[in-house]
Automatic annotation (TrEMBL):
A molecular function GO annotation: electron transfer activity
Record bears the keyword Metal-binding: yes
Nucleotidyltransferase as UniProt keyword: no
Cytochrome c domain sequence ranges: 78-168
PROSITE patterns linked to this entry: CYTC, PROKAR_LIPOPROTEIN
Name of this chain's protein: Cytochrome c class I
A matching Pfam family: Cytochrom_C
Keywords on record: Heme, Iron, Metal-binding
Lineage of the species this protein comes from: Bacteria, Pseudomonadati, Pseudomonadota, Betaproteobacteria, Nitrosomonadales
Species: Methylotenera mobilis (strain JLW8 / ATCC BAA-1282 / DSM 17540)
Length: 174
C-alpha cells in the first residue's frame, strides 16, 4: 500500500515534471519567435497600420527601437557618421540639404515639422520608411521602386535619424 502510494506519487511527480519542462520549452520556443514586443507603427500618410517584417529588426539597436520606440544611436558619433553616409547615398541630401537644413524638401532640424510626429524618432522612422503623400518617397527596404529590392534597413534608418538629430536641438527620444 505504501509502496503503491509512493509509486503513484512518483509517477504524478514525473508527469508534472515532464509537463512542466514540456510547457516551459514550448513557451521558450514560442517566445523565441515573438519575444520582441513590437510597438505599433503607423503610416504618415493616413495613420493606418504600418507592418514591417520583424526579421528586419536584426540588430540590438533595431530590436530596442521596435520594442520601445527609442533610437539608441542618438548622440553616438560612429553611428551618426554612418547615418550621414546613407543620407548622402539615398539622396536625402539633394532634397533636404547637407545638414538637413532644407532645400527643395523641408528642413528636418525641427523642432517644428510639417508632420508634428517627426519630432519623435518613432514618427520620423515611420515617415522615412513609408514616405508621405506630398513628395517624400518611401525609403524602407523593399518599398523603393528598384530592382533588385533596395532601401534602408531599420538599423540604417535609425542611423540616418541619428545624423539628422545631430544637426538639431532635439533628440527625438524625449
Ligand atoms: C526627391 C526629393 C526627396 C528625397 C530624395 C528625400 N526627401 Fe524627404 N521630403 C521631401 C519632400 C518634398 C518632403 C515634404 C513631404 C510632404 O510635404 O508631404 C519631405 C519630407 C520629409 C520628412 C518629413 C519632414 C516634416 O517636416 O515633417 C522627413 C523626416 C524626410 N523627408 C526625411 C528624408 C530622408 C531621411 C531622406 C533620405 C533617406 C529623404 N527624406 C529623401 C523630399 C525628399
Amino acid at each position: 500500500m505504501n509502496k503503491h502510494l509512493f509509486l503513484v506519487a512518483l509517477i504524478s511527480m514525473l508527469a508534472a515534471c515532464g509537463q512542466g519542462s514540456g510547457s516551459k520549452s514550448a513557451d521558450g520556443s514560442a517566445s523565441a519567435g515573438s519575444d520582441v514586443k513590437m510597438i505599433d507603427l503607423v503610416t504618415t500618410q493616413d495613420g493606418s497600420a504600418l507592418k514591417i517584417d520583424a526579421k528586419l529588426f536584426d540588430t540590438p539597436a533595431a530590436k530596442e527601437f521596435i520594442a520601445t520606440g527609442k533610437n539608441p544611436y542618438i548622440g553616438v558619433e560612429a553611428e551618426i557618421q554612418a547615418g550621414k553616409k546613407k543620407f548622402n547615398l539615398y539622396s536625402c541630401v539633394a532634397c533636404h540639404g547637407g545638414r538637413a537644413e532644407g532645400a527643395v524638401g523641408p528642413s528636418l532640424q525641427g523642432p517644428n515639422f510639417k508632420y508634428a510626429k517627426n519630432a519623435t524618432n518613432k514618427g520620423m522612422f515611420e515617415t522615412i520608411w513609408h514616405g508621405t503623400n506630398g513628395g517624400m518617397g518611401a525609403k524602407g527596404f523593399g518599398l523603393m521602386q528598384a530592382d533588385p529590392p533596395d532601401g534602408l534597413k531599420p538599423d540604417e534608418v535609425l542611423k540616418v535619424i541619428a545624423w539628422i538629430r545631430s544637426n538639431s536641438a532635439i533628440t527625438g527620444n524625449e
